[in-house]
Amino acid sequence: SGLGFNGYSDNWGLYVTQPWIRTSRARVDVRLNAGQQFLTDKYPDVFASNSSPRGRKQVNIGSAAITGSVADLPGGLTGFGLVGTTGNVGLRSEFSRDISGDANSGGQFARFNYQINHDQQVWGPFSFYAGVNGQLANNNL
C-alpha cells in the first residue's frame, strides 16, 4: 500500500460437514472446522524502534457451526447460522508482542457469530431482503 502497511498469510484448514435435517422445505447442517493461520504484517519503518517492523503471528482455531435454511413463507427463504470458535493467537515476534501488548490481542480467545436473513419475493422480479449478523468475543481480536 502507499502508506507502507501490507502483509500476507499462509493458511490451512480442515472441516467435516454432516447434514442434520433434510426435507423439501428445510435443511440444517452441522460443521466442525480446525485450522491454522501464519500471519506476517509489514509496518512502515517509522514504527520500528529496536526491532524489525515485521509482525508475525500464528492463529490456531477450532469451531462448530449449525447453518441452514427454511422455505417458510410462499416465495420466501430464511437462512440462519450459529458458529462458536475457540483459538489461540501466538505472537511470534518481538514486534508483534510490542504492538499487540496494549491491545491485549494475543493468547486464548472465544467468539460466537450469528446471522439470520430472509429473502422474500414480492412481485415479479422484485424481492425484499433483510438480515442481521453479529459477533460476541471474550477478548480483543
Automatic annotation (TrEMBL):
Gene source species: Salmonella enterica
Protein name: ShlB/FhaC/HecB family hemolysin secretion/activation protein
